[in-house]
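Re: [help] complex structure
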Amino acid sequence: MSMPVRGYECAPWELRWRGLAVDQLQRTESAFALSNGHVGIRGTLEEGEPRGLPGTYLNGFYEEHELPYAEGGYGYPEAGQTIVNVTDGKIIRLLVEDEPFDMRYGVATVHERVLDFRRGTLTRLTEWESPTGRRVRVRTQRLVSFTQRAVVALRYEVEPLDDDMQLVLQSDLLANEPIERDTKDPRVAAALEAPLRAEFSLAEDYRAVLVHQTKRSGLRMAAAMDHQIEAPDGLRTGITAEDDLARLTVAVDVPRGKRLRLTKFLAYGWSQQRSIPALRAQVDAALAGALQTGWDGLLAEQHAFLDDFWATGDVEVDGDPELQQAVRFALFHLLQAGARGESRAIPGKGLTGPGYDGHAFWDTETFVLPVLTYTVPEAARDALRWRHSTLDKAKDRAGQLGLRGAAFPWRSINGAECSAYWPAGTAAFHVSADIAEATARYLAVTGDREFERQAGTEILVETARLWASLGHFDSHGRFRIDGVTGPDEYSAVADNNVYTNLMAHRNLREAAASCERMPEVASALGVTEAEAGTWREAADRIYVPYDDERGVHPQSEGFTQHLDWDFAATPPDAYPLLLNYPYFDLYRKQVVKQADLVLAMHMCGDSFTPEEKARNFAYYEARTVRDSSLSAGTQAVIAAEVGHLDLAYDYLGEAALTDLHDVHRNVRNGLHMASLAGAWHGVVAGFGGMRDHEGELSFAPRLPSALARIEFRMCLRGSRFAVEIHADRASYRLLSGKSVEISHHGTPCTVTEVPVTLPIPPIDPGPPPTQPAGRAPARRHPAHLRTAAPAPQP
Amino acid sequence: MSMPVRGYECAPWELRWRGLAVDQLQRTESAFALSNGHVGIRGTLEEGEPRGLPGTYLNGFYEEHELPYAEGGYGYPEAGQTIVNVTDGKIIRLLVEDEPFDMRYGVATVHERVLDFRRGTLTRLTEWESPTGRRVRVRTQRLVSFTQRAVVALRYEVEPLDDDMQLVLQSDLLANEPIERDTKDPRVAAALEAPLRAEFSLAEDYRAVLVHQTKRSGLRMAAAMDHQIEAPDGLRTGITAEDDLARLTVAVDVPRGKRLRLTKFLAYGWSQQRSIPALRAQVDAALAGALQTGWDGLLAEQHAFLDDFWATGDVEVDGDPELQQAVRFALFHLLQAGARGESRAIPGKGLTGPGYDGHAFWDTETFVLPVLTYTVPEAARDALRWRHSTLDKAKDRAGQLGLRGAAFPWRSINGAECSAYWPAGTAAFHVSADIAEATARYLAVTGDREFERQAGTEILVETARLWASLGHFDSHGRFRIDGVTGPDEYSAVADNNVYTNLMAHRNLREAAASCERMPEVASALGVTEAEAGTWREAADRIYVPYDDERGVHPQSEGFTQHLDWDFAATPPDAYPLLLNYPYFDLYRKQVVKQADLVLAMHMCGDSFTPEEKARNFAYYEARTVRDSSLSAGTQAVIAAEVGHLDLAYDYLGEAALTDLHDVHRNVRNGLHMASLAGAWHGVVAGFGGMRDHEGELSFAPRLPSALARIEFRMCLRGSRFAVEIHADRASYRLLSGKSVEISHHGTPCTVTEVPVTLPIPPIDPGPPPTQPAGRAPARRHPAHLRTAAPAPQP
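Output below.
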């Protein structure tokens, strides 16, 4: 290893890392992961080693395993699901004369990798001198196609830098790749060893295919590769296929000044039902398409797809180049996670790593889908289609729990509950309201009546039925929801969680409204006037506890009576607290892992007065430790709303840089999609003040002192428009489509092609709130603005 | 099998079962178990088969095993403990000519087994005709010695009934006996297979010894046997020893009219530290003692020990012979569980079976120790010495949980927490107050200052420290204890559980009082005036929530606001509810598994007015399903106090007959010691109205209509006295020792050798309370009073 660790370089449209840094590989593999939402490949070096954690994932393809309980209980899920590292097709090994190209040996005089946000490719340039002094230049480029969802393509070029040289390339399909076990951190998912059973293999010419099936879940997958070779004369090739390995070997003598270029096309497919021949045909067809389009064609399609995305969704941040890069990195990865999922989940880590076992959680609907709804609405729709496709499982689960309607799982790949700790899983019923909210938002933003008819109304109705059966009217006529867990994971199983109750309130109203729009669907679902009336009544009478003595909303009933956590006695290395304190201690005290009441003030802001928001925010700021990556983005939004703009800026920085700075020290297992989405929320809902309560789009923009200008784009019912914010004014202009009705700091406004510029009123938020000792967000001081060095751990 | 199932026969001083009933074997093995608190052997047939579940247990001897968690957490116990079925010495097999004596074949014309409560023996008489028509009479008798705690003795006699006959006896020591796995019922403990590793074996003459060590916990045990043989001439014997089997074989031709008699002496010992030679010497010495005493001597000692026990502790019930038998059965087994434990725990099942993994729980201190305290106080003292010996582990656990003082485990064999589900385990902190309460009661009843100095004060101080750190003063100056679990297992992790808070209140006061009595001990423990002052203040200001609207105490804060369980929609076969409904559903609704607030009214009755007791009792009666065997005895006590005497009688019947009627269908895994104790409480605290608040002994006797007379005995500070109750009057008389001060229905009274007879005032309790549909206790109708047939399942 010849170069020092340098970290990511700052640039507006790319992410570049110079040097190798073996101990940083696993982390950078996550950031350099490519995906289209259907196939994901981590940014592992082509030669396979050194490596952090190799990973190739197919959305929805998982293995089952037993969930053990020392003390079981009724309704505990018995089977867990874990995303499988499927057949690895990105491996291309190089032999330079008789020396394997391995960067742990010899000297790399040049080594850099670049993720290009506009081209959608990962490129690499390495100049390497072998231990015996032979020098080669290696250039690679890879993409996971947004336009041909089964296809991955890689180009590998190698040239001798001094003498003529014999070069051998081995291009593999490798199944059941051995991978290392990770820590005992409960947040890091369990890995599975050799989950694939070989069913079929074949190799001929430059092409090979392997078909495998998981041992327990019985899912079948096929991976195929084909190649194009450009080489000097004298090429020798051979291809072989075993159960778990197919390999094309290419050998040639390359004169100085010439090069060997291998273009590798990969196709992946999987199915729960299709036969071996059918799957084989499917990947063969995908390969044929890719070959027909060709390498240059795939590159061009990729570029065009991304141009379109940025035209709708780009966010410009002037005054903080690192933040600018981080926000685009975030948007790029959100697009990668959702673009071509097509009725599969968007996992918490996307397809960038095995973290959280590859499960999807509520944060997809709460944080990721709003971003997609306003930028790539088809992707949001497809993710909601996945939820709709799992309704039978959610209804079964509700039945098992003694409830009506649909209880969506806390964590899952195929829609069945996989949470083995019910107080923080099954009891967190808000997931069903979060799904309903994402559905209602998608319907309001797109006006997509076809989706509403096919899926939207049913999701809203079945979740409303859940709430109607979960809550009850008390002797004072209030609708209570007892014994549930809200978003904050340092509390559990409490009565009348404000977030949950307000989200249930919206869920019940939206279901009734959708049934009015879709009377035939409602009738087919058996919804009567009386049932819808009960929903409205429950919504109207929802109980929202309030602590008169302290003048704040308790997160859940009784919360503000609990003992305050002793932050002064909590050493810095005791965070995250869940690794050093028992749940019993966390649950019974006033300590908040992540925004809960504060999230309620974002999602259901129309249920709070500005004064309540200010008091609540200050109260929970003093008790929130942000041991979850889900929190900073939301705190940025509410900090901005109540006028603490520099604090909001700090939180936005933390959310946007969570993965690039590895704030939670677990990026090695994948990126945090919700935190990446939090960067968008911090800009758009925070400094843009965007809210969409009841389908009305409003803005209340304000900039922090460090930023000169923000511009972001959104689409609403097919219209694209841009919002440009300066310190004293904001402009709204239509980019395409019909005019859009919005409000600016409460003033109604029509957005047309002629920009409307409106002044920003001043705000006096009073003194800034305090955070628990040592848990304030890192300040984005001016000195930080122009460097990409990792920030200190919080 | 030749005889029908008949069940137990009713008799005042014994438990007799005629006939075999293979499918009832496991259940009767529990009832026929013999134990002295140190060694326990289940009532398995000598010939080993047919059998239910063989079991030989040494108190405190366990194997460790991993506790698996699909999702782990900080502070979760990693190692579980399970009682080990140790080397089985009760096996004596018989060969009649060439036919093995096996009651599944041939015909048993006579077969009965009798547990004798006064002799402390289990006897058997079987007359059996082999498949080929050979007839023998087998008589056996066995005892686990109360006076020589390491010793078990068996006598086996066989005589031919027709012709002369060759008889062969094989007397075994068998280790790692294979046993069947049981159901998945979470209440039934996991069994371990072949936990013993052989270390030493030797056989010579009629004597053999086996030494084994557990594989993981590293505990070592020795079992030795010696024999005396009385036989006709021509005896041939042989003895062998392998790793897991030692066997004495005895063969002889026995003429008609003669018999073969084998007397087998067994000695058991175990240690965590002692060497093989040391343990071998220990059991050899015990055997030598037993042989020196001899069979007749052991029988005589056993009888004398029991005479003394019954003289102090007998309970007479006139008018219900079945109940009379059940109460003596209960007392006999409680004595067996505790008599010679000597600084070991009293497990939830005693040493009668492997249920609950052999763990001890809070119910030992709450239900079992009061019985022993008033009848065999040394046994109560020894059980508390066990808790004291585990203080270091309890202090470590408190530290791990972020608390001071001692947090005793929810379930354990060696004192380390083994509960793998913290909401119903670790969070049930009341166990520490229960231990403190048992300590305080023992001190008040015995005045044992030596124990107080050595152990009592320390237990009280360290548990008081726990409460001082677990609770906090709120803004109104109330001392709150949040986020804990009370006795009711259908609720968990709630604020200000009334039972817990009131028990903590007593714990804090008793600690302060003990420190005043033992200033040197307090000083050595670092207790300052200020600390004791804080305890008193916390006790004085303990928060006891009350629901003004409903006029009742909520079990925990908010409980009475929760939705009522829908009992009408709950089918009879859905009980126990925990096997058919998720915890989430149980916890959030008003459904009570077992007395909680009602237990508080028994244990801390001086904190409630009579009117509160009546209202609370009615309220919780309507919501209590008694899915726990711990409940009926307590409900009997409070039903009697509030004047519902016939209902109390029903509950007393259920508590007393829980095991004999197998009400919870799990007697096969051992008897329910706490429920057996509940029978005593139902009589003494229920119909006797005995309370001992603040060390003052009071009685408020009243009989139900079906009973003509109750007499029970107690000892207080060395004085024995009897309480005799008739419908209209009660008499108190001293049996030995100094006079005793008590009160009768509020009237002070001195108990002397001249009986004092006082009238019983009438009570009008109003209409009887209702229970959930189908969950009323079985009525003890007159028709039931003279039959021993099993009652219908509730």
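Chain A is about 30% helix and 25% strand.
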